[in-house]
Design a protein that fits this description.
Blueprint (H helix, E strand, L loop, with lengths): L11 E6 L2 E5 L7 E3 L3 H7 L12 H10 L1
Antiparallel strand pairs: 1-2, 2-3
């Protein structure tokens, strides 16, 4: 007998502009905004001030793994 998943995460990602994305997550009333900042922005060559600074998806992955 094949086991079925216990949980399926339903997440929707919307790209607003450039590196700015919103993630609609279960149990959250407001979307989480992702973007770039500091060294990450420099790595991708995005000009300072072109987009507002936001945590990257990598920042969230690291925070989740550390938690």
């Amino acid at each position: 007998m094949e086991e079925q998943p216990k949980y399926l995460s339903r997440v929707r990602i919307v790209r607003d502009q450039g590196p700015i994305r919103r993630a609609f997550l279960p149990a959250e009333t407001e979307p989480v905004t992702f973007g770039t900042h500091d060294e990450v922005r420099e790595h991708y060559g995005t000009a300072t001030g072109l987009y507002p600074d936001h945590a990257t998806t990598l920042d969230y992955v690291v925070a989740a793994a550390a938690g």
